[in-house]
Amino acid sequence: MKTELSARAARRLDRRDAAAARSPWLRPLSVTGLAVLTLFLAMAVLAPLLAPYDPAAQEAAKLLPPSAEHWFGTDQLGRDVFSRVVHGARLSLPVALLLVAVACAAGTLLGALGGYLGGWVEGLIMRSADLVFAFPGIILAMAVVAALGPDLVNAVLAVVVVSWPSYARVVRSLILGMREENYVQASRLLGASSLRTLWVDVRPGIVGPTVVLAALDVGNAVLTLSGLSFLGLGARPPAAEWGSMVAAGAQYFDKWWLGLFPGLAILLVVLASNFIGDTVRDVLDPRSARRGRA
Question: 237 in helix, strand or coil?
């Protein structure tokens, strides 16, 4: 009897494992990441409807604790913290997605040109990437913003500057392995230009790893932008931005709600982005999925 029950339990586990293997999006972490990120995206889109107060209005009493009237309390200027957290999603998420897209496009293009053309072009691009990697990312981003001036646009540009070499290196390594393949050589022998060969023959082989890297990089982008704003080098007041809200809360340690709720928003978005990035990697790279199941 026990043997039969054990066999049934083993078959049920095998079916669950098979279902998870067929659909990585049905795994618990994947579902959690999608739910959290969808919640914050909906919050960003519907912020004017969800926020009960104007995020810049200084109408309430200062430093009120969370209550039924002000769910997350009020800050040192009498602004509703919940409304500012909701509107902060409209700033942090789109900006992070934009800078990841720009860094991915720039790094992919430079890495593709360097890996395919070789010679001095490859040397120039890779030495530039090595120069960026020689410094800690946040320190180099701070230096770029300090040189250009504290502003959200300059913060985005700084994060792009420190992010593109990762894509360039990955794409270059992929193209170095593909440019000697028979189908690439045949395309060149038929008279196709370098750009056409890159777009038609090489591009399908680099899309997957690049998308995986970009998906994993969204959380880092949110964290870096928040760090720059925390240091006063990102969004300028009175803009509702999570990093600057955490910085304001750090000045009032006894008013725990000022930094707790925007900090939780940053934490949840970063975790959700990492969960989704891992799922995208498993979907586009079956080898990593097999290693994870093993």
Answer: coil
